[in-house]
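Ticket #223: bound-state structure for BIS(adenosine)-5'-pentaphosphate.
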Amino acid sequence: MRLVFLGPPGAGKGTVAALLDDRLRVMHLSSGDMLREAVRRGDPLGQEANQYMKAGTLVPDQLVTGLVLRHLEGVEPRESFVLDGFPRTVEQAQASDEALAGRGQAPIDRAINFEIAPKTVVERLVGRRICQRCGIIYHVTRIPPRRASFCDRCGGPLKARTDDKPETILKRLAVYHEQTEPLLAFYRAQGKLRVLSGEYPIQEQYETLMDLLKKEQLVSDAG
Ligand code: AP5
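RESOLUTION: The complex was predicted; output attached.
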């Protein structure tokens, strides 16, 4: 099963992808995480990408596509994965389709678009906290840790993301509408687009996705 998760910032793409990884061993590949890791390492790609990420705009296609396709090189030809945050433009989608086909890899099966209202976007991102040690995503009120500011799994400190400031969130949302929404038509034309509300509480959100994947015979009833 090879999925692309689409939807505005804060739609829950990373949270749901992490659950699929934990529960079904579907590899979670996040372009945002790859870029943040490059920024932490301070390598030239990270330094260049950081300016765009801080501004809430898209990192240029040639930088991101190269980075994600290098990660895909290590994936077995039929291994299941979720691409979270990539592709973000039609050019990125075309490049990944070509790369998978060119390497004899199984193609993308479905693109799932998680729809949420703008006010949910802001509420979720302002309250998001991420474990600095293991990367688990929390929300201060919706998905809170047992002990405030510390990770349930590893005890690491929780922090807000630097681009989760209200003005950057609004910029990211505008960029999503302008540059990423055209991708919906791209996947619709391939018959691969499926749309889910992203407004359910997290467990229900996961179950709604599982029901869809079972109906589409991408996951067995036992899964
Ligand atoms: P990226 O890291 O991809 O960020 P994003 O798309 O803005 O998405 P988010 O991570 O903000 O949201 P999410 O949908 O994953 O939500 P989450 O699950 O965390 O990109 C960051 C930047 O990198 C971009 O701005 C760009 O500069 C660059 N970039 C990345 N990829 C690129 C590409 N392909 N091309 C060019 N540039 C690129 O959930 C959010 C919050 O809500 C959390 O607190 C969570 O706990 C909570 N929550 C989640 N689900 C629920 C639920 N069902 N109910 C209640 N709360 C929930």
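RESOLUTION NOTES: The two ends are 12 Å apart (CA to CA).
TICKET STATUS: resolved
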